[in-house]
Design brief:
The complex is a heterotrimer.
Chain A lengths: L15 E5 H12 L1 E6 L6 H10 L6 E4 L3 H13 L3 E6 L1 H17 L3 E9 L5 E5 L4 H6 L8 E3 L4 H18 L2 E7 H5 L1 E5 L3 E6 L33 E3 L13 H16 L2 H4 L2 E4 L6 E5 L2 H15 L4 E6 L1 E3 L3 H10 L2 E6 L4 H10 L4 E6 L8 H12 L3
Parallel strand pairs in A: 2-3, 2-4, 4-5, 5-8, 7-8, 13-14, 13-16, 16-17
Antiparallel strand pairs in A: 1-9, 5-6, 7-15, 12-14
Helix pairs in contact in A: 1-2, 1-6, 3-4, 10-13, 11-12
Chain B lengths: L3 E9 L4 H15 L3 E7 L2 H5 L1 E9 L11 E6 L2 H7 L3 E10 L12 E5 L1 H9 L5 H13 L4 H11 L5 H24 L5
Parallel strand pairs in B: 1-4, 4-5, 5-6
Antiparallel strand pairs in B: 1-3, 2-3
Helix pairs in contact in B: 1-5, 1-6, 4-5, 4-7, 5-7
Chain C lengths: L22 H15 L6 E5 L14 E4 L5 H11 L4 E7 H7 L1 H10 L3 E7 L34 H8 L3 E6 L3 H13 L4 E6 L3 H5 L7 H11 E3 H4 L11 E8 L5 H12 L10 E6 H5 L6
Parallel strand pairs in C: 1-2, 1-3, 3-4, 4-6, 5-6, 7-8
Antiparallel strand pairs in C: 5-8
Classes of the chains: A alpha/beta, B alpha/beta, C alpha/beta.
């Protein structure tokens, strides 16, 4: 071993930090303009609450530890309706409890961000160990047909960026956004260069004429402007299916209309919401699709495979909902085999299989014992696929 | 081939290994400009006694943030030593607490034995700084991170008011390492 | 004479409440209290859960939030904490607030956050057809207690007192003027206030318990209630089946949003070790149109 120094000429010292994903998430939330946190402590997400309990009061924000996970989600929605950018953080068991009011936020179109630092399940499961087993819960955890956005960072800096982006997407589309970390990302200390400049989105407000306000008005964008309580609009918000006025309706035409719009407002912007990163080898016959910390193991494995002379492409999914169907379909057209490593029993692999539509064979690499997916597992799967097995 | 160095600090919960890992990572990352990650495993293991903290250093982006093949293993308990020695590279370094680890595994790796915990307790008067003594030894024998960087990182990470005792612990570690290196050099067959 | 119409969304009438239901009287009491205090309609938020009483939010011309079952107080906590300038009222029922929402109820009282909860207690789940509630008296019938309620019941006001509420009053639609006065005092109180209002439900509660006529249900309420001043003279045995009405607690204590504001003030000068990047604000209208890469 030999001393290595200053090989990386990065920005000034002030922006260089060694921090965890949970720390990055908390700081990014403040940077994005989050001024309300309502939560309930749960491993391995509690550091986010602990940090924000210190930081929020110093930037004029509000922190409250609620009596339970359900109440925390309710408080976050209430705060958002009162005009605050609001956040909650949890892990699997708490995420289950929050689903009721996540559905409410979808239905009533209330922007907010829900961080889930995934741990092993089901039930109380593995409180301190990583997993990616809430991928489907993020999509379908709450009842009814609803749109959802879920982002999945691979590291600490990406957690910072995607936390900011979660708030931006929530405000842009008037919708809850789920940020899925896993225990590895939440707790790993990593060297990061924090950004000097970020883009922050503020929600669209209605015009000055308060009497004309329709809180769920049809607009060209499908995203209705949103007033805050106390600004004079005196509107009604409900989890019941409602019409443009916000009041409940049982009229089949109106029901169909609002539910279609609700789903369309995310579907039609899917291309903009979906973000993937591809490291493509044009000669590759094997592709890897991965997300979260597992994408890191996969990248390492891809590097080792290439060193062995196996051409491989890797597609990292930074957005997992809406599902990046197009990029996967394209990959399936170019390769014969797709390896999907996940710290679950193949929740997203089924979606990959569906998107690949028979054009490529899908191989699952799964681990559910609380240990990270070692690069060797992925490498073995790449080798086997390359041999045509 | 790029540079990647993997270290694991292992022992029991409460020995400050997570903090020690953070200090090493921060010393490398902030004060030396190389890439570093630090992660830990705790939970059921911590209750069972074993705790581990891992540091990966590299001049490139660190994709997989967990250890694959260790360049250095610190074991402050017999259990940790037995459990993790198999992850050590043949060219790696095993550093054990000489009181806690009586059965030192045989292997192609280089082995150093030092009374880390006793040194902290008897020389510094605070057993709690054994983690910083260990950092001192590691800094000198691994020669990856510069002494001055580690000192800076210690000063920013340890609780206010404990800087002096921690720096003393660090110096003790460095001097223990000097003795170990000298002994190694004095062995028959050494060049 | 109060112009109640100015507080109502008349377009949403008729009310869903049955003939003989007392909910309208409680609602009127709330509007009267708001009028007497002279609150700005724009600065009032009324939050409700699920149930007959919770439908009240649809009929009143304020900022109104009809939430999920039992969660009204949790949502209200978010609204009030995020914007303490708002007057926040919660309209809820016995099932909503003390069964599924019991946890939020006791913790809001403990926190003593400045929310006024107007709890319509009709001893039954009325909207869904008459299932047993946490306040259904032992032995009385409900669709899910067809042989009489085998369980005991909650004394909601005592629950709130024990949890730390700074104002607790119990009234009844049989004394609407007093009820409205209690609500007024509750709103004026800086802190968590509960006004428990007894209200008849002849349709779901009365019919199953041999008081299907509204008057019978009202009579039953009258028999069960006793004013706190009279109650003081009675023995515990004499009070066993009675529900004491009146102002049960009215104390001054530190309120949550005030305490938090003081906390914010006290930590303002502590330096924050936080990297705050330069922020470029993008209006969502531009973001949604794809004008900015997010």
């Amino acid at each position: 071993m030999s001393t290595v120094s200053n090989t990386n000429a990065g920005p000034a010292k002030g922006a260089v930090r060694v921090m965890t994903g949970n720390e990055a998430c908390a700081e990014a939330a403040i940077a994005a303009g989050c001024r309300f946190y309502g939560g309930y402590p749960i491993t391995p997400s509690s550091e986010i609450a602990e940090i924000l309990s210190k930081l929020l009061p110093r930037v004029g924000g509000k922190f409250i530890q609620m009596e339970d996970e359900i109440g925390a989600m309710g408080a976050v929605i209430g705060a958002s309706l009162a005009g605050a950018k609001a956040l909650t953080a949890t892990s699997g068991p708490g995420f289950s409890l929050k689903q009721e009011n996540i559905g409410y936020a979808c239905m009533a179109e209330v922007p907010c961000v829900i961080v889930n630092v995934m741990r092993g399940g089901p039930s109380t499961g593995l409180p301190t160990l990583p997993s990616q087993s809430d991928v489907m819960q993020a999509r379908w955890g709450t009842h009814g047909d609803h749109p959802i956005i879920a982002l999945c960072p691979r590291g600490v800096r990406e957690t910072y960026d995607l936390t900011v982006r979660s708030f931006n997407l929530a405000e842009t589309y008037r919708t809850p956004v789920i940020l899925l970390l896993d225990e590895i990302i939440g707790h790993v200390n990593e060297k990061v260069f924090l950004p000097d400049r970020i883009r922050v989105v503020e929600r669209v407000k209605p015009g000055a004429d308060v009497t004309e306000y329709l809180p769920y008005q049809d607009t060209d964008t499908d995203v209705p402007p949103m007033a805050s309580f106390g600004e004079g609009h005196r509107f009604h918000v409900t989890g019941l299916v409602h019409d443009e006025t916000g009041f409940p309706t049982n009229n089949p035409e109106k029901i169909e209309h609002v539910l279609r719009r609700l789903n369309r407002k995310i579907d039609r912007y899917a291309d903009r919401i979906i973000r993937v990163e591809e490291d493509r080898d044009e000669n590759a016959r094997v592709g890897v699709v991965a997300y979260g910390s597992t994408a890191r193991s996969a990248s390492y494995a891809v590097r080792l495979a290439r060193e062995e002379g196996i051409p491989v492409s890797i597609l990292s999914l930074l957005t997992i909902w809406p599902f990046p169907e197009e990029p996967i379909r394209e990959m399936a057209n170019r390769v014969s085999d797709i390896v999907v490593p996940e710290m679950n029993l193949g929740q997203l692999a089924h979606e990959v299989e569906w998107a690949a539509c028979g054009k490529a064979r899908v191989h699952k690499v799964n681990r559910i014992d609380g240990e990270p997916i070692h690069p060797q597992y992925v490498l073995d799967a790449i080798r086997a696929a390359a041999r045509g097995k | 081939m790029s540079f990647r160095c993997e270290m694991r600090l292992s022992g029991e919960g409460g020995q400050g290994l997570v903090l020690a890992g953070k200090i090493l990572a921060e010393a490398a990352a902030i004060y030396q400009g190389i890439n570093a990650t630090q992660s830990q495993s705790y939970g059921p293991e911590a209750r069972g006694g074993a705790s581990r903290s891992e540091i990966i250093l590299s001049d490139e982006d660190i994709d997989f943030p967990k250890a694959v093949r260790l360049d250095l293993l610190l074991a402050l308990t017999q259990e940790a030593c037995d459990r993790y020695v198999c992850d050590l590279k043949p060219t790696g370094v095993l550093l054990v607490d000489s009181d806690a680890v009586k059965r030192v595994p045989e292997g192609p790796f280089k082995t150093y034995r030092a009374p880390v915990i006793r040194g902290a307790r008897e020389t510094i008067g605070r057993e709690i700084v054994a983690n910083i003594v260990a950092i001192g030894i590691i800094t000198r024998i691994a020669e990856v991170i510069e002494e001055e960087s580690v000192r800076e990182a210690i000063l920013t990470r340890v609780p206010k008011g404990t800087e002096e005792v921690n720096l003393k612990a660090f110096e003790l570690g460095l001097s223990m390492a000097d003795r170990l290196i000298a002994e190694e050099a004095g062995k028959p067959g050494a060049n | 004479m109060i112009d109640f119409e100015k507080y109502l969304r008349i377009k949403k009438f008729p009310l869903i409440w049955c003939a003989g239901c007392g909910n309208g009287i409680v609602l009127k009491g709330m509007l009267g209290a708001i009028d007497r205090i002279g609150l700005d309609k724009n600065k009032i938020t009324v939050v409700s859960g699920i149930g007959c009483s919770s439908r009240a939010t649809g009929y009143v011309d304020f900022n109104t939030l009809h939430t999920t079952h039992g969660r009204a107080i949790a949502f209200a906590t978010g609204v009030k904490f995020a914007n303490p300038d708002l007057t926040v009222l919660v309209v809820t029922g016995d099932g909503d607030a003390t069964a599924i929402g019991g946890n939020h109820f006791i913790h809001a009282a403990r926190r003593n956050i400045d929310i006024t909860v107007i709890l319509y207690n009709n001893w039954i789940y009325g909207m869904t057809g008459g299932q047993v509630s946490p306040t259904t008296p032992h032995g009385m019938r409900a669709t899910t207690a067809p042989f009489g309620n085998p369980e005991g019941s909650f004394d909601i006001s005592r629950l709130a007192i024990a949890a730390g509420a700074s104002f607790v009053a119990r009234g009844s639609v049989t004394s609407p003027v007093k009820l409205s006065q209690y609500i007024e005092k509750g709103i004026r109180k800086k802190g968590f206030a509960l006004i428990e209002a007894f209200t008849p439900c002849p349709t779901a509660f009365g019919r199953q318990n041999k008081m299907g006529k509204a008057l019978d249900n009202l009579e039953w309420i009258k028999e069960r209630t006793i004013d706190v001043k009279k109650a003081d003279a009675l023995s515990p045995e004499e009070l066993e089946d009675k529900l004491v009405t009146g102002i049960l607690v009215d104390v001054e204590k530190s309120e949550y949003t005030d305490l938090y504001a003081k906390l914010v003030e006290s930590v303002r000068d502590i330096p924050v070790d936080l990297h705050i990047p330069e922020r470029e604000v993008v209006p969502a209208s531009i973001a949604v149109a794809g004008g900015e890469e997010l």
